[in-house]
Amino acid sequence: MSPVEELIARCRDAGMRMTPQRRAIFEQLSGNREHPTAEEIFRAVRRRHRGLSLATVYNTLETLARLGEVVRHGMGTGAERFDPETRPHHHFVCSGCGAVEDVFGDLPVGKLVPPGCRLDRAELRLTGLCRACGGGAAEAGGAPDRQ
Questions:
Q1: Confidence of residue 57 (pLDDT cuts 50, 70, 90)
Q2: What's phi and psi for 60, nearest 5 deg?
Q3: 9-17 long-range contacts, CB within 8 A, separation 24+
Q4: pLDDT, position 145
Q5: CATH assignment of 87-139, among 3.30.1050.10, 3.50.30.30, 3.30.1490.190, 2.40.50.100
Q6: Which of 14, 25, 32, 99 is the most exposed place for a label (fewest CB within 10 A)?
Q7: H/E element holding 23?
Q8: What is the Cβ-side half-sphere exposure of residue 95, based on CA atoms within 13 angstroms?
Q9: CA quadruple 33, 39, 44, 46: dihedral sign
Q10: Residue 147 confidence (pLDDT)
Q11: DSSP label at 17?
Q12: Contacts of 142 (CB under 8 A, 6+ apart)
């Protein structure tokens, strides 16, 4: 079964009615590593479904977030972004172009929790320049630090 079919089955089990528009939204999200905004999903899906409304996209994403099928992120780039990768991970956000990349790995964020507080989930947002915006030059020592 494809990831989209598996998602459809889980959503139906949760009582969500399936429509061609919702299926197209699922397909747009499946394997999408771009962390798209609702507006980006709307523009991509609307090419095939002219009757699609932005409200349908927002409502579908809200339901998917409530079901734990996508994670909503404010990346500091303006609009909220939606991530179909629900495993714990962090993000690198390019301060040049706004691109977002997943960062997997254990980071000792638990040491940052104040005494007496309980950590439920940790997500770090790392910022800098991606490869396309010249981040590779910074790694090699060719670009000055921005602060």
A1: very high
A2: -65, -45
A3: 10/67, 10/69, 11/63, 11/64, 11/67, 11/69, 14/67, 16/63, 16/67
A4: 41
A5: 3.30.1490.190
A6: 14
A7: helix 20-29
A8: 9
A9: positive
A10: 35
A11: P
A12: none
Domain boundaries, the chain: 3-73, 87-139
Two structure tokens written together for 108: 């000792």
- Tokens, residue 32: 């999408």
Please give the Cα distance from 119 to 106 (Å, whole number): 15
Residue corresponding to tokens 């309980």: 118
Distance (Å, whole) CA 20 – CA 48: 10
